[in-house]
Amino acid sequence: PSVPRYTNRLINEKSPYLLQHAHNPVDWYPWGHEAFDKAKKENKLIFLSVGYSTCHWCHVMEEESFKNKEIGEIMNKNFVCIKVDREERPDVDKVYMTFVQATSGGGGWPMSVWLTPDLKPFAGGTYFPPEDRVYRVGFRTVLLRIAEQWKQNKDALLENSQKIMEALLTQAEIRGQAQESPPPSEEVMATCFHQLSKSYDEEYGGFSEFPKFPTPVNLNFLFTYWALHRTTPEGARALRMALHTLKMMAHGGIHDHIGQGFHRYSTDQHWHVPHFEKMLYDQGQLAAAYTRAFQISGDEFFADVAGDILLYVSRDLSDQTGGFYSAEDADSYPTAASGEKREGAFCVWTAEEIRALLPDPVEGAAEGTTLGDVFMHHYGVKEDGNVSPMKDPHKELKGKNVLIVQSSLELTAAQFGLELGRLSALLRESRQRLSAARAQRPRPHLDTKMLASWNGLMISGFAQAGAALAKEEYVSRAVQAASFLRRHLFDPASGRLLRSCYRGKDNTVEQSAVPIQGFLEDYVFVIQALFDLYEASLDQSWLEWALQLQHTQDKLFWDPKGFAYFSSEAGDPSLLLRLKDDQDGAEPSANSVTVTNLLRAACYSGHMEWVEKAGRILAAFSERLLKIPIALPEMARASAAFHHTLKQVVICGDPQGQDTKDLLRCVHSVFCPNKVLMLADGDTTAFLYRRLPFLASLERRDGKATAYVCSNFACSLPVTSPRELRRMLVP
Question: What pTM was estimated for this model as a whole?
Answer without folding.
Answer: 0.97
